[in-house]
Write a structure and sequence with these properties.
heterodimer; A: alpha/beta; Rossmann fold; six-stranded mixed beta sheet; four-stranded antiparallel beta sheet; B: alpha+beta; 4 domains; eleven-stranded mixed beta sheet; Putative ABC transport system ATP-binding protein (chain A); ABC_transporter-like_ATP-bd (chain A)
């Protein structure tokens, strides 16, 4: 599915140069559920951003399928991203002015999908995360767990091959966290590749492989028995 | 005080930090202030004419309204010469009276002749118009004939100084005048001629003038002189005017009261300070134009202020966190409000200063583009400064108050959580943007229509060929009169001259001589009034009129021979009056022929028509209708009559091959033939166009300010787009994460700003339609309003808005989405 070769990300400001990722090599296969762990500032988010094609690496290769996308411009990346990758964020990132339904539909607006099919797929996604009854509510009217379920619906409605989750349970209580993890597991069971950044060891246990980052380098990889 | 210092420090820092916003805000407002000040100053200048005379409130000009059957009453500022003294004699409330007649004189200096204006005035002139003297005594300067008072510039021109009392000014015709005073050059805001010399009404200025001018002392039906009266304090002008009909009935032998079918007249008083803007005479329509300009000024300034308020309030909503922190640290609400207002007023002040600098720099260009006179001193008038200061406090306060109140209301905890503040503000902003663009589009449509109409009227069917005709004037000068025909013959010998013919007036001269006509055998009820054009034999040929039937005047035709004005009446003409034409034939315009009841042009030829009371004329030809006035007036039925006693202007038709050599030869011929008369020539098409310079200038002015209005509106839109892009950064990032491409984002933002502009179109169109239809009503010949003219500015506004916003949107959209998300 994807392969990172000697991937490095350096942030430069006027005075300092920070190496967020240092010669990272990771190989993720289709259908895997990978958790990335590590302390704050270890480079987890940078890695996820690059994997999600929201950012470019400073050097190294990023093979997505059989393309090295490391040097691609925003336009090309946007195209690949749109077809293949879904995102779930810690802070949900729903648009306040749009209803639940519209938030989910947003992910389909940029694909060439006729309105009727869009509607069906949004309903389907909302049903899947048990939030269909709130489709005309605004995000502020929902609890945190509900908002994250909407975010998941939005991430999966375009049927991406890979789902990237950045601490999806970080803002949730344990009951809601469990629920979200179960949903991700379920999605993974249906064949979606999932890469999740998390601080929570219990939640990382849902993944089949755990990659530990420290100071921008991969320090350990643990495979969990299936 | 300590707090104010803190406010100012923070304010300056914020303004420097948000440079783009500061720049847009200040620039837009400064341009708006400069533009509005310019227009405001101009309007103020134009509406405050003659107020500086100390007795301005007691001075009136006596005007005369003529009621001619069959047309609208017209008010003239010219009156009969005996009127003034009679008024003074009959009305005790008239303290003093001054008549002013403007005569042209020729003064020579170093061998060159210069035409100057001599104002022939009554001795009380300076009692009414207390102009400051540099030398001489205002009380006696004009008391006796034979003296002259010069404005400073003319004193320097002819005497190289102002200490010239008792010196002699000699005219080229031999008349000598003694200098009895030098006055300061008149300010720009007076309707009195600035460049004229002044002399007593009894002064002899040359044989020809003297005889005529003396004859006028008892003539009531020649109106040529301006009459001013100074009334006793407390006199009611309306009460005075009410007694004029009785006065006229007693004094004016020709007086006919209104309400009959005959031409009648009435006297009206125009207050001195209203003369310039009064629709009488030359400055017609000025008041309308001034109101229009004031409206434009308001629109431009309004757009700028809206920008300022919009940008200020929009930006302040990005400062929720700062306000929250200040609140958490214990800042009372009043202090927060104060902070916002101080910032806003500071910014407005900077804009006002900048606007003032712009005004300083641009006013000369503006003034010369308008072709008006304007004293620079007005720029420093304390009123302007006070107005600007009040404006700064009002606009600054307003722009600061709104966000101050909205942001300072919620508690700190709400704000810190990023609660929704001022979400209603965006609706207000959209509404204001709609208003701005409505105004800008309205202005743009008006500008186009005014341009179109102006071009249409100046190029419309004139009925003659105005191109390639040179007008040579001043033939009525006494030394020229006897030589008109020989001059014409000499002209015809110059290569490049095809034809030449003289006339009393040229088209667009503003001449307006009308007479009654009727067909023999019908009753002259005074309702058939034609414009009478007195011309020489060859004039119509030189003008290139279109002949519909019959023939034009012909020197060879015995019928067209002129009678001898001195000869005794005979040949069936019993009571020939001095005002009757010298020819016995007439050429009519098509409308005139129709008005007399002829159905075809051919039918009229050979028939008789009676001029005035009983002077019979034979119709020899009918020509196409001609436009002799501006297109504001309808084509008038016209009769062309032969005469030679007042020929003044020679129409010289040039061949297409004629060039500079032909013109030089004509000038030389003039100099050789009439060495004492300064040459005065111009092209007819230029002359006609000159009649429309007012409209042209209005058009240019409007175009300029429309451009400004649109520019300022776009500055605002640009700022709002920047603000929106910033405020929606997270949303845009998310949309990109979800697969939106650059084009999707650009489209999103562009659409957001297209909507208000489109709504603005819907508002501007009907308003423009109504306003312009009314404006066009003022023209007898007018263009039809073309829907395209409405669509184009609207579309242009949309495109400009797109371009303005798209740049921003594209930049935001092209950024890496991770930047957008990290912003949070």
């Amino acid at each position: 599915m994807l392969k990172l070769v000697d991937l490095t990300k350096v942030y430069r400001t006027e005075e300092v140069e920070t190496t967020a990722l240092n010669q990272v090599n990771i190989h993720i296969k289709q259908g895997e559920f990978v958790a990335i762990m590590g302390p704050s500032g270890c480079g987890k988010s940078s890695l996820l951003n690059i994997v999600g094609m929201l950012d470019n690496p400073s050097s190294g290769q990023y093979w997505f399928g059989d393309e090295d996308v490391a040097g691609y411009g925003e336009r090309k990346l946007a195209d690949i991203r749109k077809k293949n990758i879904g995102f779930i964020f810690q802070s949900f990132n729903l648009i306040d002015e749009l209803t639940v339904f519209e938030n989910v539909e947003l992910a389909l607006l940029y694909h060439d999908i006729p309105a009727r099919e869009r509607k069906e797929r949004v309903k389907e996604a909302l049903a899947k995360v048990n939030i269909a009854h709130r489709e005309s509510h605004l995000p502020q009217q929902l609890s945190g767990g509900q908002q994250q379920r909407v975010a998941i619906a939005r991430a999966v409605v375009s049927r991406p091959r890979m789902l990237l989750a950045d601490e999806p349970t970080g803002n949730l209580d344990s009951a809601n966290g469990e629920e979200v993890m179960n949903m991700l597991t379920e999605l993974n069971g249906e064949g979606t590749t999932i890469v999740m950044v998390t601080h929570s060891m219990p939640h990382a246990q849902y993944a089949r492989r755990i990659i530990n980052l420290f100071d921008g380098q991969v320090v350990a990889e643990n495979l969990r028995a299936a | 005080m300590k707090m104010l210092g803190n406010f100012l420090r923070v304010a300056v820092r914020i303004l420097v930090r948000d440079r783009l916003y500061t720049l847009l805000n200040v620039a837009g407002l400064a341009i708006g202030i400069a533009a509005a000040s310019m227009l405001g100053l101009y309007v103020w200048h134009e509406t405050h004419y003659d107020g500086f005379f100390s007795k301005a409130g007691q001075i009136y000009r006596v005007d005369k309204t003529e009621f001619v059957p069959g047309r609208m009453p017209i008010t003239y500022d010219s009156t009969a010469k005996p009127l003034g003294p009679m008024l003074k004699q009959d009305f005790p409330e008239v303290e003093a009276m001054v008549r002013v007649h403007s005569e042209s004189v020729v003064v020579s200096r170093d061998g060159n002749a210069f035409r100057e204006r001599m104002q022939v005035v009554d001795g009380d002139f300076f009692r009414l118009f207390d102009l400051p003297f540099i030398a001489g005594d205002p009380g006696t300067a004009l008391a006796a004939p034979g003296t002259v008072v010069l404005p400073e510039s003319l004193a320097r021109k002819y005497f190289n100084g102002v200490d010239i009392l008792g010196r002699t000014l000699t005219l080229t015709n031999g008349i000598s005048l003694t200098v009895s005073g030098v006055i300061r050059d008149l300010p720009t805001n007076t309707h009195l001629r600035r460049d004229a010399m002044l002399t007593n009404i009894g002064t002899r200025l040359g044989e020809n003038f003297d005889g005529w001018f003396t004859r006028m002392d008892t003539t009531w039906n020649t109106n040529f002189i301006r009459t001013y009266i100074l009334v006793k304090p407390g006199t009611d002008p309306a009460a005075l005017t009410a007694r004029f009909p009785a006065f006229l009935a007693a004094r004016d032998p020709n007086y006919l009261s209104t309400g009959t079918n005959k031409p009648a007249k009435a006297l009206v008083l125009t207050g001195l300070t209203h003369i310039h803007t009064d629709p009488t005479g030359v400055s017609a329509n000025l008041l309308g134009v001034l109101h229009g300009l004031l409206a434009v000024a308001a629109v431009v300034l309004g757009i700028a202020i809206v920008n300022f308020v919009n940008l200020s309030t929009a930006r302040s909503s990005l400062r929720v966190r700062e306000v929250a922190v200040r609140k958490a640290l214990g800042a009372p609400r009043g202090m927060l409000i104060g902070q916002f207002i101080v910032e806003s007023v500071l910014l407005t002040l900077v804009a006002a200063v900048l606007g003032y600098v712009l005004l300083e720099m641009l006013m000369p260009t503006f003034v010369s583009a308008l072709g008006i006179r304007f004293d620079r001193g007005y720029l420093y008038s304390p009123w302007l400064l006070v107005a600007e200061l009040v404006g700064v406090l009002a606009v600054g306060g307003l722009a600061g108050l709104y966000p101050a109140l909205v942001l300072s209301r919620p508690t700190a905890s709400v704000l810190l959580k990023g609660g929704t503040v001022s979400s209603g503000g965006s609706a207000v902003r959209t509404l204001l943007v709609v208003a701005q663009f409505s105004a800008a589009i309205l202005l743009a449509i008006s500008t186009i229509v005014i341009f179109q109409q102006t071009r249409y009227v100046s190029s419309q069917q004139l009925g003659f060929n105005a191109e390639g005709v040179l007008l040579v004037r001043e033939l009525h000068q006494p030394e020229a009169r006897a030589h008109i025909e020989s001059f014409r013959q000499a002209l015809l010998r110059i290569p490049g001259v095809a034809q030449a013919g003289a006339s009393f007036h040229a088209p667009a001269d503003g001449s307006d001589s009308t007479d009654n006509y009727h067909v023999p055998g019908t009753v002259d009820d005074g309702t058939i009034v034609f414009r009478s054009e007195f011309i020489g034999h060859d004039y119509l040929q030189a003008m290139g009129v279109r002949l519909l039937a019959g023939r034009l005047f012909d020197r060879a035709a015995t019928a067209d021979a002129l009678r001898d004005p001195a000869a005794a009446p005979g040949e069936g003409i019993n009571n020939v009056r001095p005002t009757d034409p010298l020819g016995r034939t007439v050429v009519l315009s098509w409308r005139a022929a129709q008005r007399l009841g002829f159905h075809t042009a051919e039918e009229a030829v050979g028939r008789q028509v009676i001029y005035d009371v009983d002077y019979p004329l034979t119709i020899i030809g009918v020509v196409d209708d001609l436009q002799f006035n501006s297109a504001r007036t309808e084509l008038q039925p016209t009769a062309f009559l032969l005469d030679e006693r007042g020929l003044d202007v020679m129409a010289v038709r040039l061949t297409p091959a004629a060039g500079a050599a032909t013109l030089a030869a004509i000038d030389q011929l003039w100099k050789d033939t009439f060495p004492t008369i300064p040459a005065n020539r111009e092209f007819l098409d230029d002359h006609i166009r000159d009649a429309y310079t007012g409209e042209m200038r209005q058009g240019t002015l409007l175009a300029g300010f429309t451009g400004l209005a649109i520019l300022i509106a776009c500055l605002g839109l640009f700022g709002l787009a920047a603000f929106t892009a910033q405020r929606r950064t997270k949303e845009i990032g998310l949309r990109k994460v979800l697969g939106a491409g650059v084009t999707d984002i650009v489209r999103l933002l562009v659409w957001q700003f297209s909507k208000p502009v489109m709504v603005a179109n819907l508002i501007a169109w009907p308003l423009a339609w109504l306003g312009l239809s009314r404006w066009l009503q003022g023209y007898a010949y007018r263009i039809a309003l073309n829907p395209l003219v409405f669509a184009v500015p609207g579309l242009a506004a949309l495109v400009i808005a797109w371009v303005t916003v798209a740049g921003h949107a594209a930049r935001v959209a092209a950024a890496k989405p991770v930047d957008a998300l990290r912003y949070e």
